[in-house]
Amino acid sequence: MFNLAILSRGSALYSTQSLFRAARLRGHNVRIIDHQRCHLLIDDEKPQVYYEGEKLSGVDAVIPRIGASLTDYGAAVIRHFELMGVYTATRSEALLMARDKLKCLQHLSANGVPVPRTFIAGNPEAVPYLVEKLGGAPVVIKMLESTHGIGVILAESQQMAVSLAEVFAKLNQPVILQEYIAEAAGSDVRAFVVGRSVVASMIRVAAAGEFRSNLHRGAESFNVKLTHHETNLVLKATRLLGLQIAGVDILRSNRGPLVMEVNASPGLEGIENTTGADIAGAIVENTYAGASRLRSKKR
User: Fold this and answer.
1) Which of 145, 165, 180 is at the close of a domain?
2) Which of 19-28, 91-100, 172-181 shows the lowest per-residue confidence on average (mean pLDDT)?
3) Does residue 200 register a pLDDT over 90?
């Protein structure tokens, strides 16, 4: 038995409750902590986290569930727990790397992980040239940070791509232009990694008239078995990013699987309901094993 904290702003959310139940079923003490209400003490002594007016102590491990809107502060809270010697299921630097789509793709591609061909537009004037270099329209336009398909748009024409880039520039947002994988036909594969294993995988198929395969946007999902090559690719991507828990999205293209995105705080509802896998249980057990190893090193 150990003392577990789940960092989550939504105690009633499916993923949070699934983790909470899994920890309780395994006999652990568990509490849900809103990381936005954590206050971080930095002084000459040991770092401390204060929550609801009290100093947090006796925490053996934390499972972060950090939303995209609070990435920086969420990472700071995780880092503080790390400095306190608490095991964290997701490391702060791994979270930051995965959330920065540009940095993540740069790191993966530089280490031999195939990704969709991608340009970062330094200015809107370059967009027509970049679209042509990607093979022409349609192209996918993305914001650096997006979730549930928000900020991901299919530009059907070069002019549309230019117009979107101009809007992003007005908002001081860099724009990512990515090749459109037509043969994927609006589908992608989500592989869920815990530790060094793929514990579940599903294929998501976009709703009619929609190219984004997010379940939040009406996509359907089905259990799917990864190929040996896909499994190795998924595990390599998470290893390169230093993630113990991740959802890896891959596109099945004519030139093989391409890693589209790595999610450091993936939702559990869709993939648990689709596959029937006890992913929350796997996460809790992996976290317990990690905390136990850390405890043994301290002795």
Assistant:
1) 180
2) 172-181
3) yes
Are 79 and 148 found together in one domain?
no
pTM for the model stands at 0.92
* Domain match, 145 and 291 both: no
Q: Helix, strand, coil: what percent of the chain each, to 5?
A: 40, 25, 35
Ranking 7-16, 18-27, 126-135, 270-279 by mean pLDDT, the lowest is: 126-135
Distance of alpha carbon 233 from alpha carbon 242, whole angstroms: 14
Residues in Cβ contact with 153 at an 8 Å cutoff, skipping those fewer than 6 apart: 140, 141, 142, 164
Sheet containing 61-64: which strands, arranged edge to edge?
29-33, 3-7, 61-64, 87-88
Rounded mean pLDDT of the chain? 92
Domain with residue 138: its CATH number is 3.30.1490.20
Assigned token pair, 206: 């976009």
Q: Residue 138, preceding bond cis, omega within 30 degrees?
A: yes
101 and 224 assigned to the same domain: yes
Query: Considering its fold, how many domains does the chain have in total?
Result: 3
| Residue 163 domain-assigned (yes or no) | yes
